[in-house]
Specification:
The complex is a heterodimer of chains A (345) and B (385). Chain A is mainly alpha-helical and 345 residues long. Chain A has two domains: 99 residues, no CATH class; 214 residues, MetI-like (MetI-like fold, Orthogonal Bundle). Chain A is 70% helix and 2% strand. Chain A has 14 helices and four strands. In chain A, the strands form two sheets. Chain A has a two-stranded antiparallel ribbon with strand order 1-2. Chain A has a two-stranded antiparallel ribbon with strand order 3-4. In chain A, α5 crosses α13, α6 crosses α9 and α7 crosses α12. The longest helix of chain A has 36 residues. Chain A is elongated. Chain A starts with a helix and ends in a 7-residue tail after the last helix. Chain B has two domains: 155 residues, no CATH class; 197 residues, no CATH class. A two-stranded antiparallel sheet of chain B has the order 1-2. In chain B, α14 packs antiparallel against α17. The longest helix of chain B is centred in the first third of the chain and has 37 residues. Chain B is globular. The relative contact order of chain B is 0.14. Classes of the chains: A mainly alpha (345), B mainly alpha (385). Chains A and B meet through α1, α2, α6, α7 and α12 of A and α7, α8, α14, α15 and α16 of B.
Chain lengths: 345, 385
Amino acid sequence: MFGFMLRRFGVMLLTMLCLSFVVFVFVNLEPNLRKLAIFQTEMRASDQDLENWLVRNGYRDNFFLRYGRWIGIVPKQPVTDPATGEVVPRFRFCDEPAESTYSGVLQGDFGCSTAYRTTVGERLPEALKATGILMFWVMVVMVPVALIIGVLAGMREGSRLDRSLTFLSIASTATPEYVSGVIFSAIFASWLGWLNGSAATAITKGVSFYNFTLPVMTMAIYGIGYIARMTRASMAEVMTAQYIRTAALKGLNFRTVVLKHALRNALIAPFTVIMLQFPWLLTGVVVVESIFNYKGFGYLLVQAASNNDIDMVLACGLVSVALVLLTQLISDIGYAFLNPRIRVS
Amino acid sequence: MEPIGIFEIIIGIIVRFWPTWLGLAALFFVGLTFRRRLGLFGQLFGSSVGVAGIFLCAFWLFTAIFAHIIAPLDPRVQVSIMKNAVPGAIDPETSMVFLLGGDHLARDVFSRMVYGARIVLTIAPAATLIALIVGMMLGLPAGYFGGKVDNVLSFLANLVLAFPVILLFYLLVTPGIMDTPIPYVMAGLFFLFPIVFFLMLFWMRFGSRPEKAWLYMAVTLVIGAWVYSGLVFDADPLGIISIEPNELNIFVAVVFASSPGVFRIVRGLTLDIQTRDYVAAAQTRGEKPWYIMLWEILPNARGPLIVDACLRIGYTTILLGTLGFFGLGMGPESPDWGTAIKDGSRVAQLRLYFWTGVTPAVALMSLVLGLNLLADGLREESLKD
């Protein structure tokens, strides 16, 4: 088990390294650097000025050197003003050490956000916290509802209940967040006026039923169908097993058979599916936070990407990739842990 | 002028869709008459889920084909007096009815929805097809040979799968990236796969009868080179096939995002089918590995692959909508559903003029629902055998 985890962890680190490199390549493409230079220098800067700015701030150094600096295995050089010879930080709004130091992701320095005019380390945690709250409530709603639908549909395969619940699940997987968000807001916020169409107050004044129901509902709908279908398949399979027939033939009533004998074995497979929902939820978070104006991680990612905020996009990319890989790892380990038939050597 | 009532709107919409109804009637007539001879497609008419799936998919397919007849206006035409007009409002100058109202730029919402179907139903199936071929060409050897090939390809596929789709799109579909060669290189690579696929397919089948093989391969090469030059270099000598740079960019990003999924499925199917007796028989006959992969394994994997393709077209539709929703790639004037939903979902817009956002949202949902139902019907029918 220990060796298996170690190997998985190694692959995970390698994956993260590769992916962060890919993101690094993409955010440092020539058009992006040019946009950054134009944004940071005066309005009427000539091409030469832009080039000078990029050279002075180290954007023209060797690519791998810069990647090493971002990771923190190559020391970062301070930038000196050629006119005065003084050390000046690259961006006015972020402090930088005056001497050459190792300061990258490994040291906990994620760089400087040009869109928010502060360090990434300052802005990112609060956004992650806001999204964490949203995710928590989505999970609280989504998982039980999906499991109940799946179990109800799967316990009597082919019944009318099964058919209608399956149709509902299919319909919910056909409803991406931006569709259900628009339809729900139109119905509940504009027409009936029961709920708030914006979740912005959830951050300043705290979460309430009025401002948080629509985003949570919107996000949960898309995931429910998928988990429910997996649970249904797993439940239907368990219900045909020998030991269920034995339990029924013993004279136990249907309720006991389902709750005591079938349920636990039927929930192993959905566990993996639920864990693997996280990467999907991430896209959902971005959409939902944009629709409902909730300033969490997804909102941050959109703002960073559309404002060419290089360090912020890198940090967001790293966080989301780490999240995806961690959930994969947990789902693998959890599956082996839950299912006694699987033993990793 | 008074806007017309809700029943008149519904009747008006039904009447406008007349070419779609004709097409559907023809399709269902053929489908029900020749049910027994149409194989899997005919069997679909036996289940209510399958019929519902066929109905919704065919509805949008015919709507896309006859969009220019169904839509009363061009999707980009602005009739300034009809800005944010309610559904059923009448243009006083031409006395034309805006069945589903006008949007914030005074365009006809109904016409835009109809033309949106055309965009979605060209890009989504085509991108899925290319992704399917890329996934097959990589998944077959990974499953068949195993070992190092499998390790490397699986690692690469997992890399792409671990990438959050939305981040991928933000990096890959930006106006800046069209100045770099990246989209064109990727397009060049992806569009090579179908050509190589068909060349190998024919060579492996007819290799012993060279004159037949050469004929098929020459036809493949000519058609392939023609489409390839039109799509990748935008230099079609006949001037028929052309694609906008931003559409190519979207296309490439969508193929890139969905081919690892196909790869995984094909790899899994190959691992399963490889153990069958007919594969062992072919190996004993001394067939080449690629013959076994393309002509023994692939045809026997078609059931799950067709089901997956249906689901994947739906998923691609959702991805295209996501791109439009974030204003990535599609032009701001584009009538595609994602862009329309984005325009309609601004807080003020949604509060007062909900029909601009809800119309494309319902359209997108019904198409994806149709594809999912179709996939479900197909799965049930193929499990029966």
